[in-house]
């Protein structure tokens, strides 16, 4: 079942959250207790403050965490599938002297990022939270690992961004806040925009997925929303993801006026169907009317059904963004090109356009079969490997420790 389009294109919750009040000087934050936060929390603060996570205005309290974990709804009733939380150890809270009712300064690299008006400090059964959100407590699941690794307290409250992080090259070319992107889409006349969620370099299956969704949605354009965030060894490097997608348009595989590549600061939870709902809501906030969902969307391993991300929307009310549901695209040597699961009659000879095949091609061990991976994509990925990946297009220990960060929180004025 597809979700119905809200023709007003209103953000989730009805209005776009904007919580930014930049510092005029250090006097604005003098005397505030400070808590240093990791890069993932920097991403969350930016996303809350600029409305990517509308209607959230801050980190969730215990009522919202419980409701979201159990029912995929905020206590206000709006659908929301993944808890957005700030975890801090009790020892850190005591050292900073933080209590309910305080305004706290969140810092990164010692520099001020945001203020947090503390409304609650609470604890959660992390194992039960993981079970509800991920439908498993297997510690091998990366989302479960993340949840079980949280500190022993959550701090809730509204946040206000006081220092805008600097987005570093090459990501600065692809960075748009929801307000900026909505204005851009309006200026180019995109009344129907279909979002493509990605954390991969595009192979031909991805290209056909986008083109098929574009036609099915009768869209004005495809918005590639590339997830830039926490990485583990073996993932594609962030630079290769955005530059390879942009390269499709640059070489005319999409016309200029129907294709945009953007970056989303998000650390994947691999929550399968729940994360599919989250992706739809965030892209709704970006101004998209449609979102494409293929096989194993936002999944990992075999924790979720192949098309669980399709089925979950049957359980939900109208979200104001329509889902475009597609089966698998693969390479069929018998058909002599990329084929669609719903059409091709040669499943026994198909070559999956993912995993080992594409990685082998990119690594140089296999020559691309026709229409498997664009030569132009392969070229830009290998260039990224040399320029950004210390010789590899895949995340390595050296990349994790020495890469140029996606963003930098500057010193206060």
Task: Describe what you observe in this structure.
This protein has 413 residues and is α/β, with parallel strands linked by helices. The chain has 2 domains: 26-163, Sulfate adenylyltransferase; 171-405, 3-Layer(aba) Sandwich (Rossmann fold). It is built from 13 helices and 15 strands. The chain has helices spanning 39-49, 62-71, 90-96, 126-134, 142-148, 178-187, 204-216, 238-250, 273-285, 308-311, 355-363, 375-387, 397-402; strands spanning 34-36, 58-59, 87-88, 103-108, 111-122, 153-161, 166-167, 193-198, 221-228, 259-265, 290-293, 322-325, 329-332, 337-340, 407-408. Strands 1, 2, 3, 4, 5 and 6 form a 6-stranded mixed β-sheet that branches. A 5-stranded parallel β-sheet has the order 10-9-8-11-12, sandwiched between helices. Strands 7-15 form a two-stranded antiparallel ribbon. Helix 7 links the parallel strand 8 (193-198) and strand 9 (221-228). It is globular, with a radius of gyration of 21 Å. It starts with 33 loop residues before the first strand and ends in a 5-residue tail after the last strand. Mean pLDDT is 92; it is low at 1-8.
